[in-house]
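Input record (Table S2, row 528):
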Amino acid sequence: MITLLDYGAGNVRSVTNAIERLGETVKVAGGAEDIMAADKLVFPGVGAFGSMMDILNARQLITPLKAYLRTGRPFFGICLGMHALFDFSEESGGTPGLGIFKGTVRRFKTALAVPHIGWNGVCVRQPSPLFSNLRGDEKFYFVHSYHIVPEDEDVILTTTDYGYSFASAVQKGVIVGTQYHPEKSGAAGLVLLQNFIRAADKKSGAPVQLSSTRLAKRIIACLDVRSNDRGDLVVTKGDQYDVREAGEVRNLGKPVDLAARYYQEGADEITFLNITGFRDFPLEDMPMIEVLKQTSKHVFVPLTIGGGIRDYTDSTGRQYSALEVADAYFRSGADKISIGSDAVLVVEQYLSDGRATGKSAIEEISRVYGSQAVVISIDPRRVYVDDPDRVPHQVISTTIPGPDGETYCWYQCTIRGGREGRPVDAVTLAQVCETLGAGEILLNCIDRDGTNSGFDIELINAVKSAVTIPVIASSGAGSADHFLEVFTRTEAESALAAGIFHRREVPISAVKDYLEGQVEIRPSRQTV
Ligand code: 1PR
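Output record (1PR complex):
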């Protein structure tokens, strides 16, 4: 039996699912007695360091945790659960940590995008039971803005490079911690977790010793989900956002089945977009919650969910906040939520007031779950202009002229699934959302969606150069070569596609095999 410490703000479902998949039972620890009775304790942390320590304090869990850690029983801290072991974190001023390891937790200081999101490698610095049956050159899933800086170099189990080398795992006797998420790192992550559970006492050296690591470009499969006219929840796909063919909603499969297939084929991440979320009440739209619960039982890579994340009032007059909607999604297995329409309205308000309210969905969700959990999904379309000075928007010069030979355009944001254009451009939207606390941009393009004509490189470069958070390039992929193009002609951290994967025109593994050796990726051989 594995005891899982749940302090209420994290996604413990994924870790529970991964442990149960390995045939072990999980007891979720609610109080001090559970901690003291545990044989093996796993502490997955999500959110911000300060709020985590405040909750542990308020629940009087600090003393039992320290006592547990002193008794020589196995402990596995994941991400923030590892940060908690240190003296303090820059993330929260003076709030002390558990002080089991001497050292601090610092914010990344690098010109690269922060948060550090995605699959990166590890340089294994000492023999460890955790690396039994692993080669040592696998990639694991990271998502964080802060990293540990141990005073004692001897406790460093692995290092990883992101702008510079940082400690990505620690080990001291039976206490281990990883910055990466084993529960989200596919097959390699499950082996790591199994090694902890099975308690290999024997330390084993990884056969491959990397001297440096590189973050992989991510390949993301996107599932646009809605009910069809018969009321079945289906994966659909639009042509420039029009999902009907001969009057019927296109039906390309069942969400849970398709997600499982993409996991097997090597997707680095899976995104569900509830495309009618703008008009449905998400918490009444329970099928999406069920889709997440079912998917997260079998799919051990990050899951993002979007659609309908906003404040709303239901038919009985009860009010829900966007944070409550997000809470429900995180509890059901989501790692990130994505906000579309609401982000545009928030940015319009911000631009008109000249300041943040502190109460928008972006601000509230990122405050509780961390910026890395908040993705902004932008649905822009090109608007051509003759003269860049005649519109109050960020205009680009384009090599793809407009219908009247215009050589400038701006990218108009839309809401309600592309149905309504708004007076804000995609570049400004991305910048303001970053200021408000968003951690990633999912950059769609209505002009390219479903066309198989390749990504809009000009759009991606315009947005990517305006923000410091990661950007997911989306819309238009029609071949493996389009992925090579987007990764060599832009700085996008990941690329997302839907149609070519749903129609089996190019499987994810074929995209990866094509990219291998040309672009840093998580190889398909690691995704078994
Ligand atoms: O506005 O917060 O409720 O969120 C709704 C979400 O649903 C938004 O993220 C929006 O992008 C999405 N959405 C709404 N309507 C549609 C539609 O297609 N009618 N889908 C829609 C957006 C775009 C991509 C697509 C890529 C790749 N789909 O995600 O998967 O363009 O496609 P391709 O590779 O086939 O070209 P809210």
